[in-house]
Amino acid sequence: MDFETVSAEDFGASLRGIGLNILVRDVKALAAFLTEVFEMEAHRVNEDFAIMTYHGEVFQLHSDPTYGANPLLGLLPKAGARGAGAEFRLYETDPDAAAKRAEALGAHILQAPTDKPHGLRETYILCENGYAWVASRPL
Predict the structure, then answer these.
(1) Sequence-distant (≥ 6) Cβ neighbours of residue 3 within 8 angstroms
(2) What's the mean per-residue pLDDT of the chain?
(3) Where are the alpha helices (DSSP H) in 18-94?
(4) pLDDT tens digits, residue range 76-111?
(5) Residue 87: beta bridge partners?
(6) Would you say the C-alpha torsion 95, 39, 130, 19 has a positive or negative sign?
(7) Do residues 3 and 16 touch, judged by C-beta distance below 8 A?
(8) What distance in Å separates the CA atoms of residue 31 and residue 26, rounded to the nearest whole number?
(9) Using CB atoms within 10 A as the burial measure, which of 83, 101, 116, 133 is most buried?
(10) Rounded to whole angstroms, what are the CA distances from 136 to 27, 79, 119?
(11) Digit-coded pLDDT (tens) for 98-107
């Protein structure tokens, strides 16, 4: 599927399994951050929406105004972090390299790259919306 030209109707009809939509204050900024730090691909990026791909997986970024009639909008804080309790785990990203790229962008490293007892090396990186992006690789 060509994410640059697919219609909204065809894209929506193609989605399967579990879907992930992340509500953000600035779609372009988060798409650039995810591209730079985690080497994701961003498609159809504009003020309201982006399709993001990561090792064959697809998810979406939506701006707050696109959720005008959605029941979640009333639960979002106007300022501060949004993602407490949510982890977006990225098992195909080198945590040391991601942490270095994130630091260069001034992102908050919640936990430096660490070897964990569950067999992964991980780093927790917070984006400007407060979501935790966890770059992980097997030990």
Answers:
(1) 11, 43, 44, 51, 53, 58
(2) 90
(3) 27-38
(4) 767 677 776 688 999 999 999 999 999 999 999 999
(5) 132
(6) negative
(7) no
(8) 9
(9) 133
(10) 24, 29, 10
(11) 999 999 999 9
Q: What is the rounded distance in angstroms from the CA atom of residue 41 to the CA atom of residue 3?
A: 10
Q: What are phi and psi of 37, to 5 degrees?
A: -80, -45
Residue 101 to residue 84: CA distance in whole angstroms: 23
C-alpha separations of 71 from 75, 79, 137 in Å: 8, 18, 36
Instruction: Map tokens 């579990």 to a residue.
Output: 18
Query: Which of 49, 27, 31 is closest to 41 using CA atoms?
Result: 31
Cα separation, 41 vs 38, in Å, equals: 9
Label the pairing between strands 21-24 and 57-63: parallel
83: buried, middle or exposed (CB in 10 Å: 19+, 13-18, 0-12)?
A: middle
The token pair at 45 is 């990026």
Distances from the Cα of 135 to the Cαs of 13, 26, 91, 93, 123, in angstroms? 30, 22, 6, 5, 6
Which residue type is seen at 20?
Answer: L
